[in-house]
Amino acid sequence: MRCLICHVETIPDVTWVTFWKPSVQKKICQECEEQMDKITASFCPGCHRPGHEGVCHDCEKWEKTNPGLLERNVAAFPYNEFNKELVARWKYRGDFVVLDAYKEHLQNVWLSSFFKGRQVLSVPLSSKRLDERGFNQSEAISYALEEEPFSVFERSHSEKQSKRGRKDRMQSENPFRLLHPISDPVVIVDDIYTTGRTVRHMASLLKEQGCPSVSSFTIFR
């Protein structure tokens, strides 16, 4: 089998255990797996910012300006340079198998987050953006987690968040409209948590309509 990312042949390790029992063929090579990295110890409990002890400054600021909107965000991988390139391949160039490289660890983090059982909400794309990409990345991640996403929002404009600076993102008007209220705890699934503005825009609408708890789950932080 070849690595889904760099396409070199993956050779499973041979140990006394695998000698008697065939090993599971890995989808990614060791070098790519190391570059993808994983968020393990030392992360902000509020947003999962890697390499941070305790609550980070951004989360402290959010709680002062918009208290109680988001319970927490859980992420699986850091948004490093290697992962940025993979996102570009998957999200903008249609290399859909890239998501499979993250799938196993994503599912493990999902189960350990104790979000399973909550309603999973997708982040909507504008019709223009959906036509450009051909798929909704939020829904694709949900299916990779073996969850059925619910669509309860619509987006009012098609401007790319990735093209906006941090200040513009933080000051942006809410681009979403809630189609109907939800009375159960929910988790919003998306690809990247950058400033946290997107999920808090959605959380504010949910909370206004009586949702008791809103969290988010992302591949990257």
TrEMBL record:
Residue limits of the Phosphoribosyltransferase domain? 141-220
Q: Which family does it belong to?
A: Belongs to the ComF/GntX family.
- Taxonomic source organism: Halobacillus litoralis
Q: Which Pfam families match?
A: Pribosyltran
- What protein is this chain from? ComF family protein
